[in-house]
Amino acid sequence: MVELKGLPGFRDFYPEELAARSYLMGVWRDVARRYGFEEYDGPPLEALELYTRKSGEEIVQQLYEFEDKGGRRVALRPEMTPSLARMVGVRAAALRKPVRWFSTPQLFRYERKQRGRLREHFQLNLDILGEEDVLADADLLAAAIDIMRATGLDSTQVRARVSDRRVLAAIFLHIGVPETKLESVYEVVDKLDREPRDRLEARLAELGLEPDAIAGVFDATELRGIEELRARFGDVPSVAERVAELATYLEHLENLGVVEFVDVDLSVVRGLAYYTGIVFELWDAGRKLRAICGGGRYDDLLGLIAGIDMPAIGFGMGDVVLTELLRDHGLLPEPGRALDCFVCWLGADGRRQALRAARAIRALGLSAIFEFRDRRLGNQLKSADQLGARRAVIVGPQEIEASQARIRDMSTGEERVVPFDELGPTLAAELGDG
Amino acid sequence: MVELKGLPGFRDFYPEELAARSYLMGVWRDVARRYGFEEYDGPPLEALELYTRKSGEEIVQQLYEFEDKGGRRVALRPEMTPSLARMVGVRAAALRKPVRWFSTPQLFRYERKQRGRLREHFQLNLDILGEEDVLADADLLAAAIDIMRATGLDSTQVRARVSDRRVLAAIFLHIGVPETKLESVYEVVDKLDREPRDRLEARLAELGLEPDAIAGVFDATELRGIEELRARFGDVPSVAERVAELATYLEHLENLGVVEFVDVDLSVVRGLAYYTGIVFELWDAGRKLRAICGGGRYDDLLGLIAGIDMPAIGFGMGDVVLTELLRDHGLLPEPGRALDCFVCWLGADGRRQALRAARAIRALGLSAIFEFRDRRLGNQLKSADQLGARRAVIVGPQEIEASQARIRDMSTGEERVVPFDELGPTLAAELGDG
Question: Which of A188, A392, B228, B308 has its CA 20 to 30 Å from the CA of residue A322?
Fold first, then answer.
């Protein structure tokens, strides 16, 4: 028989890998909850038009898309925001604003060229809809940074790079970039890390920028920190006004206790055309991996997808890069099943008592496994050890005779006996969460 | 703009529905953990052959299947067992037996005829692989029943209908059904609830069964309880031997504390051809809904799919019927976000202090939201109330002056003040889980 394999780019989550995924999902959910976000989910399969409406027909070649048996053009979701926009659009009038929602969908992309790259990942999406104030932007970034903290990552290991498209726009307009070319210039700036400067200069020239403006674009993207921004453009009112708002944002971040993670870095624009204000990315401090997280303000997107006028901010944080970073820093929890009790038994009477013991232990919230077959006690204890059980419970002929169960602490080897009917409560007191 | 809708048969999970789903998933995970099962997951997209290998080409018409951009025939998973078999197959030699695994996948079926029916659902899959002893069968059913209990459903509300294909086979052979016709007879028996008796009789006749054998098949399916079985076939050794094993199974269920839920009911065969031993279904006691859960022993399936010889048992429990039943019995938890604190502020100084308060509260594991804009206190308190906050924290000019925050208990309206730096610990002591 030919052995069947999983599809290339799709992960199997054996218990070890699933444990890491669950850990990360747990952190995501806990921080989202602390920040007052509510969880939602959409379908993994949507009408193809939901994605082309936002990203144009060219997105189709990157999607798992097909015609279903009812003749609909459908696609596996490549991102969550269109589903979010659709869902919010349906209930826009009834929902309390601001909407604070999060989701942890699995997303899918078919990228032909990237052999060896994953075609699915899980992504936390955290969004605030219906609020224009920059304080909401600060609260959003604080949540992303507090996720880093909750995993044990600190500001020497992770940096938040923050920029503002409105600051960039004011600067670019000031140095002579025509307004109609702004989007195209952002696209060039977005490639700063990946393409040689002369090629990018050539592209800006193709767009019709004068040499001074081209130099000005590169100068602007090298600006770091609010002080540099003020020193360079403090006397240009159109820019200074935008810089002041960015400064307010940073002040909020300071009061929210996360500013130590933040660098103002005007080379960050985020590739996607739909961002309209502050944008940010989280990176490992050494910039060895890809971005951990990216997001920002996208005030026009709900209009484009769902026809509703609602400002919005949000970010996506994938599981792959973050898990890699946590593994590098030894911050993933130890794998291994948290088994409380392994119940060993000898003989049919022992078995009967073992089942009753397991039932009592499980009823108190602890986990218990028993042997399915009559095996030698030594072998059973070996199984208990290999499974990482915290306690072995033993019911053999002597214990039955005395109506007692023997409890063995698997880490110390210490043993003691308790009456059958005290077994569950005794173990719950020792091992329970309280 | 044309409003985009979700695809027919796919659910949007707004926070209210997501909360119900999370609750159910939480119960599933907790009981699985108590029974010592480890979680795994496979990809939602698999090679089509994984499903045709098990179910034949006719399954294709019920699937979301397509050719991907690399020319592979792929399908959205309609069930989890083939992925489980594939994954276990890869590591069969290395895995400790018995394997105790569970998963909670979303599954997909395209059923053209069933308009209005869902095309996706979530399903708990809980399996034990590598164990032939009937004690494992009992442990598996006990886990399914304890899930019912964990939701608050009792044995007057849910019944487990248990049968054994080997008992049925022994009876059918005894009354003259040819061995080669057994599978076909099971298929007829499986339709007892859905088709008129005369049509089923005609089918059995078409299979070549004599009138006596036909009557015997119907008589057998009307047997209820182990005593009836013993009374009717106790003197037929080939049947009695199988009935004895079923009796052992029931004895184990009694020791595991779940037998009060269980009815032996030989009309249950489960439709699928691959079951080889004990089979069971959970139903609402009134049988008004569809089955809550179904499963049993499928010792040959891992051979068929993955080419490995490994006995196996398992069940699937969907989210749809169970959620409906819980709603009918008022057993779903109240919806509503569990917001601990809503922080109200007045003026820029108040805002600064509010952000610091939120930071302190969140850092201690509680949830906090603050106003994004300077609004009248009455409006802010109204928001706090509408959001179901347990406490409002108020920082206005008077509080700033005194370096204190006001805490308002939103259920009683009582207010008191605490120094800023005691706010977090005070609230954590009052509202924390411990």
Answer: A188
Domain-terminating residue out of A328, A357, A391: A328
Residue A291 three-state SS: coil
pTM of the model: 0.95
- Residue A305 in any domain: the answer is yes
Do B298 and B395 lie in a common domain? no
The CATH number that applies at residue B144 is 3.30.930.10
Which residues in chain B land under pLDDT 70?
1-2, 112-116, 336-337, 433-434
Dist CA A134 CA A278 (whole Å): 9
Q: Residues A198, A222: one domain?
A: yes
In a domain, B3, yes or no: no
Cβ atoms B60, B109 nearer than 8 A? no
CA dist B157 to A53, A329, B325, B328, Å? 48, 51, 9, 11
A71: nearest CA partner in chain B: B112
In chain A, which stretches have pLDDT less than 50?
434
Angle of helix A423-431 relative to helix A347-363, nearest 10 degrees? 50
* Cβ contacts of A255 on chain B, cutoff 8 Å: 351-352, 355-356, 359
* Cβ-nearest to B4 among A50, A70, A257: A50
B chain contacts of residue A359, beta-carbon cutoff 8 Å? 142, 255-257
**Does B18 contact A39 at a Cβ distance shorter than 8 Å?**
yes
Nearest CB neighbour to B43, from listed A7, A252, A368: A7
**Other Cβ atoms closer than 10 A to A347:** 13
Determine the pLDDT at residue B198.
Answer: 93
The answer to ipTM > 0.90 is yes
